[in-house]
Amino acid sequence: MVNQKTVARRERRIAARKEQILDAAAQVFAEKGFHRATTKEIAAVADVSEGTIYNYFGSKNDLLIGMMTRVGDSQVPPEIFEQEGLDDAREFYTTLIQRRHTFVRQNKSILQAVLSEILTNQEMRERYNEQIVEPFLSMFEQYLSVQVEQGRIRQVDAELTTRYLFALNLGLLGMLILGDPLLQSKWESDELTESLTEFVFDGLGTRETGE
Amino acid sequence: MVNQKTVARRERRIAARKEQILDAAAQVFAEKGFHRATTKEIAAVADVSEGTIYNYFGSKNDLLIGMMTRVGDSQVPPEIFEQEGLDDAREFYTTLIQRRHTFVRQNKSILQAVLSEILTNQEMRERYNEQIVEPFLSMFEQYLSVQVEQGRIRQVDAELTTRYLFALNLGLLGMLILGDPLLQSKWESDELTESLTEFVFDGLGTRETGE
Amino acid sequence: MVNQKTVARRERRIAARKEQILDAAAQVFAEKGFHRATTKEIAAVADVSEGTIYNYFGSKNDLLIGMMTRVGDSQVPPEIFEQEGLDDAREFYTTLIQRRHTFVRQNKSILQAVLSEILTNQEMRERYNEQIVEPFLSMFEQYLSVQVEQGRIRQVDAELTTRYLFALNLGLLGMLILGDPLLQSKWESDELTESLTEFVFDGLGTRETGE
Amino acid sequence: MVNQKTVARRERRIAARKEQILDAAAQVFAEKGFHRATTKEIAAVADVSEGTIYNYFGSKNDLLIGMMTRVGDSQVPPEIFEQEGLDDAREFYTTLIQRRHTFVRQNKSILQAVLSEILTNQEMRERYNEQIVEPFLSMFEQYLSVQVEQGRIRQVDAELTTRYLFALNLGLLGMLILGDPLLQSKWESDELTESLTEFVFDGLGTRETGE
DNA sequence: AATGAATGAGGATTCATTCAT
DNA sequence: AATGAATGAATCCTCATTCAT
Question: Is the pTM of this model over 0.85?
Fold first, then answer.
């Protein structure tokens, strides 16, 4: 009994420490990038000694992996695709990007750090694809196919369209990181959703031109 | 006279050396990323000594800046926005992304290296914004405003739409780097243009829903 | 009364713990050598926590000293030199190296670790000399002198000869550690004694050449 | 032509630097042992920067390997076993150990460092066996067999005897390192040769007992 | 102008030791 | 008395940069 409690407490302490360190790492990585970040500084920000980091993570690289796992775990959950009452594709998309933006708002630093490393690190890239991109793409693809079949959206290529939508979001994240002031302000006050939905569903063409 | 010629020749030689070194740097940066690339390896690839690099560039960082300048210089030229006969916005967009894709095809590795660094390097980010992003955005914004005024495209917010289109392209580059196989194959054989134009101009909504 | 018993019990417990830890240390030192052995691993093998080690030994170095003391204590006991009936020097030598080989067989790993450290650690070297080498040398020297006086062995320089015999044994230990397969097999099956005695007493020379 | 000279000079410079660094390493290793020796100190003794060490050796471990190779190269050369006129085994042995002692005198530090590490480092042990021990043993064995056949020495087991002689020398080296004052003084003034030869050839036994 | 050896600051990682529980 | 998490000094190694030739 007591043992069980002790073990549980211990596990919670370990998890908390890991979080504490990952938070610090995320902050420093985002600020300086993975390579310019030093374990010394991460330790300082996490308010632990350098040695302690290595009691919880095998290497500096493992911090990055830990962060990616975290990002993966807090992504859009699969259930959302299976909810009832999301017949209206517009509404669904709105919900989706709202969630997504909330998520990005909460994890911008981490995403920034992770993305940067992903761009030049083969191994990270593969992890990211497997854990985050592919699961999402295949689920969304599936959803789109159904919508197309049911005539709720235009007859589009579900595979490609999925990728365009993903790209749009990825690109927006990129521009936020780049620091575009307009996007930044709209995004922080959550004013992008409507305009974005319109862009995606109505396109640029005038109605007449529409084919 | 003679002096002028000599000076000119000298300048050409210097420029050539710089190119030679930047080419090598681009190759190595793309392969390993900025931080994992060593001056030693760049020198080896450029077939010069490490010391020589420093005769032409002040630092390793300057190589990155040099590359970004290069990328900026070979971007879509401003003239394209001023050409006559590009009244048809669809056609114009098609042309634009075709050029863009050709450019990306030729510079993917460099873009990869530069982007990665941009994400976590304040200074690089500012340079990139000033030299590349902002000029393009303002020109495109201008173009879109005119198109909207003339009723050639829907009544959209030109500023935001410009950013969405930029984001879409940036995101596609991101997904290419991530290695999405579908995009990769379509992109290499230049099959994305039409489908992308359709996505952008017609949106996902069925025509009736279009409001 | 009770107090005395308690104290005695306590001392026995402490001694037992020390043994337990030294055993573990011996095992790990032998496997990895002193420097590559970590207190963490020693603790794991001893099935105690790292902290506990430091309740019984002041430092990692003290473990080594403890081991050497142990080795010293189990060396050839001085009494052997005083036993009656060991008039025959050959027989005596045979007995001696048999004991010695038995001892080495039981402590090879420890000796390996201790010797390695002795070679490059001044302090250890001094301890080893004082505690082990010198006592043995002086006793053996004494013994040899008597044998020479009594005409039981040739007129040799007792001091030097003692050192040659010590060296021979030390060197054999060295070769065993080095892993010479021939010595190893003969040594394990205790077949070296006779041949060694012959080498030491008869030399290589043919009898006629003997002078 | 010039090129050849330049290359040769370069190679000489490199070899010299390597020597310079190995000398320093030998000194520090011998003093403190491999593990306690720091690259910082080696650099200081060699009067170069730490970085320079790594221009010539891949790792601290490589310094050790480099030292062992050096030791191997300066060992007793195989030719000695093939010289004419060495019929007299005593004389031959005398020559051999004189050479050996000279060698040890010149390389004591290195041997000390190498031996210590050999005792606890599997890889080093294997290298040492292959490069130094085995070649010597097999050559000496061969020599002894012939001597035995020709009746120049007693009918001894050549294999074992070779090992005894090797052990004797190894052990003497060990005792020198341990710091035995008697051996030290005799060895430095080269007074051991005769006494050692006598020990090896005549044994301890009185002539009558010689069976 | 080119070279490449030398430099040394800097950084990730290890591990003996401590100490609060 | 035992624990084991926290510590941080110490160390090997890398690599951008310099500079004598």
Answer: yes
